[in-house]
Amino acid sequence: MRHRVAHRKLGRTSEHRLALLRNQAQALLRHERIETTVPRAKELRPFVERLITLAKRGLASEEQSKIVHARRLVRREIADPIVLSKLFDGIAPRFSARAGGYTRLLRLGVRRGDSAEVAQVELVGSEYVQASVKSGDEETTVQVKSKGVGGRLRAAAQRMRGKASKPTDDEASIPNTTDKKSRRASKKTKAAEKKSTDK
Predict the structure, then answer these.
(1) Which residues pair with 142 in a beta bridge?
(2) Is-contact 38 117, C-beta < 8 A?
(3) Please, where are the H alpha helices in 32-77?
(4) How many Å apart are CA 119 and CA 99, to the nearest integer?
(5) 26-31, long-range: CB within 8 Å, 24+ apart, which pairs?
(6) pLDDT of 8-64, one tens digit each?
(7) CA of 126: how far to CAs of 1, 28, 90, 100, in Å?
(8) How far apart are CA 169 and CA 147, in angstroms?
(9) How far apart are CA 138 and CA 132, in angstroms?
């Protein structure tokens, strides 16, 4: 029985498991969205949320010593100084009014290679993309909402299944060379052009 056993072992030693969580947390804070297996995602969520809470607690205090102490505590887990500054300057202030639940887990289906259940872990609010708009001499940043969570989930599931998503206007002008017939045809035309230039 597994009474009062807190975490999943993920088939790794303690050191390897901690290194995996640190690397995934760093990637999640850098890109604000990653894809991984469901058990790893469930272990990653409390790890990342604790780091965000430490950063928020450091920013909430007015004393410089507490801010430095919070940075040092987070620095134990996050080695990259760029990600660390992004956490303290961008992510933690974004969640200052939120009491918890900074991450979201979306199940995407199964991986083709080994049928492992895959999930996408993302920071709440990362569906809003900053876009800069120039009007005259001033440049302002406007939050532009990209596809909603459902749309991004469907697009990710289609990528996992190997189906292409709907092309945008820019992609529609580019010819599709992913199917076998069009690749063969392009190879034949290139070979014919090469023969004609050699003669």
Answers:
(1) 131
(2) yes
(3) 38-60, 64-75
(4) 24
(5) 26/78, 26/79, 26/80, 26/83, 28/103, 28/121, 28/122, 28/123, 29/78, 29/83, 29/86, 29/87, 29/91, 29/123, 30/80, 30/82, 30/83, 30/86
(6) 999 999 999 999 999 999 999 999 999 999 999 999 999 999 999 999 999 888 889
(7) 39, 11, 12, 16
(8) 16
(9) 10
Kindly list the distances between the CA atom of residue 69 and the CA atoms of 21, 55, 81, 90, 137, in Å, as whole numbers in the listed order: 22, 10, 15, 18, 41
Nearest by Cα to 124 from 147, 95, 89, 150? 95
Q: Which residues pair with 141 in a beta bridge?
A: 132
User: How many angstroms separate the CA atoms of 174 and 121, rounded?
Assistant: 32
Taking the CA atoms of 19, 20, 23 and 25 in sequence, report the sign of the dihedral they define: negative
pLDDT of residue 171: 47
